[in-house]
Specification:
It is built from 8 helices and 13 strands. The protein is an alpha/beta fold and about 300 residues long. Helix 1 runs parallel beside helix 5, helix 3 packs parallel to helix 7 and helix 5 crosses helix 6.
Length: about 300
């Protein structure tokens, strides 16, 4: 059974109301500002008509995306892995005895979006890892509403791809870690569901809500404004920056909170749990607060 961890940085692009108010439903405005993977804000019409042709294509071919492998033997030049093409995997540098991390960008992102090389390098500088970057730009470059509606299918396709990798190489699901940012967070959640919770960990970041949603939820600096950030885009992107830093240093420790009041006022005094990192055996439950420094490695 996978353990799902969240790094929740609530960039208030929607001005959706007071944070951490229990049992309150919020009405979002029609137009919001939402960032792409590189931190550029775009105006989003939440009532726009989705592109049904794109959605139907994604649903028919949920796994038709780019799966790009990086290892210490090819740290910056990717090898393309293809579902239903066993030779593409057997002839690559994929090593089933090494852990596998799958990195998934958000809306309007692609393989070159900052999250991908940053997390890739953090893993490969630390040890032997199969880093697979999922480039799902064929949907991610659509308008926001279309991308949202197509995410479950792409997540299902990722799960099917990982099942194929398991069948071809024997790489156990217990050595796989799914990491997603923004809309990519929802994507990896759907991939984990497709695999019935078999992967070791799912880590989601920067999804912009103020409530606990996973097995363990971390709220760095309370989950709102981040040190040295003057824009909500900076706050939003801090989630994956923090994760990358914890892969390298494993130095950020949260304290469990028994209530939203403790979380907001920094009065959490429960058990400790390391945020982020690459520990495939990590487990935890509940809400955690921690404070960070303003600059890398935080």
């Amino acid at each position: 059974m996978r353990t799902v961890f969240a790094i929740l940085v609530v960039a208030a692009f929607t001005a959706a109301g007071p944070l951490f108010e229990d049992n309150k439903k919020y009405e979002y405005p029609r137009y919001i500002q939402f960032p792409d993977g590189d931190g550029v804000a775009h105006t989003v019409d939440l009532q726009a008509d989705p592109d049904q042709n794109v959605i139907e294509d994604v649903q028919r071919n949920p796994d038709r995306n780019l799966y790009l492998l990086f290892t210490r033997r090819n740290p910056t030049s990717s090898q393309t892995l293809e579902i239903n093409n066993a030779d593409s995997i057997r002839n690559s540098n994929f090593n089933p005895s090494h852990p596998t991390v799958i990195v998934v960008h958000g809306w309007l992102g692609n393989q070159n979006t900052n999250i991908n090389p940053t997390i890739r390098d953090a893993y490969l500088n630390k040890g032997e890892t199969n880093v697979i970057v999922l480039d799902w730009r064929r949907l991610a470059l659509s308008d926001y509403v279309t991308a949202v509606l197509g995410v479950p299918a792409v997540g299902r396709g990722l799960g099917q791809f990982l099942r194929f990798v398991n069948q071809v190489t024997g790489a156990p699901f217990s050595s796989m870690h799914l990491v997603g940012f923004s809309l990519g967070a929802h994507l990896v959640g759907n991939a984990g569901r497709e695999l019935g919770g078999a992967v070791a960990r799912v880590t989601v970041g920067g999804i912009g809500i103020g409530t606990a949603i996973c097995n363990a939820d971390f709220f760095p600096n309370g989950g709102i404004s981040q040190p040295a950030c003057i824009t909500n885009i900076c706050n939003h992107n801090r989630a994956w920056e923090l994760f990358a830093a914890t892969v390298s240093y494993n130095h950020l420790i949260g304290r469990q909170c028994s209530s939203n009041w403790q979380l907001f006022w920094n009065r959490c005094s429960g058990s400790s749990l390391y945020m982020g990192n690459d520990d495939l055996n990590k487990t935890g439950f509940g809400m955690y607060r921690l404070d960070t420094a303003p600059r890398y490695p935080f």
